[in-house]
TrEMBL record:
The protein, known as: NADP-dependent oxidoreductase domain-containing protein
Keyword Flavoprotein carried by entry: no
Coiled-coil stretches noted in the UniProt entry, renumbered to this chain: none
Listed GO MF terms: oxidoreductase activity
Protein source organism: Actinomadura rubrobrunea
Amino acid sequence: MLAGTRSRGGGRHTLRARTDRYAELLYTDESDFDIADAVRAVAGERGVTMARVALAWLLDRPGVVSPIIGAGEVAHLAEAVAATGLTLTDEEKARLEAPYRPHPISGHE
């Protein structure tokens, strides 16, 4: 979702997003789309992909040493590697985190 594969209002922009029905259960809260919008804005300002911004943020989290990226194409791997060279400002990190709203764990009923 943070790579821009889904959009508010039901848009599905990749084959996986159009066929992954399980994800439909996970990404239903409007705040999820608010976070994606913040990632999109920062990515646009930086001139990089949403995936790169999302991974750069994740790699900056304490304790994260090996995120699972789910690369299905060589381009996905290249973006993941490129994310290691992107340092977000404190202001950018705050913008990415501001829309977050805790919600119950889903998908493991």
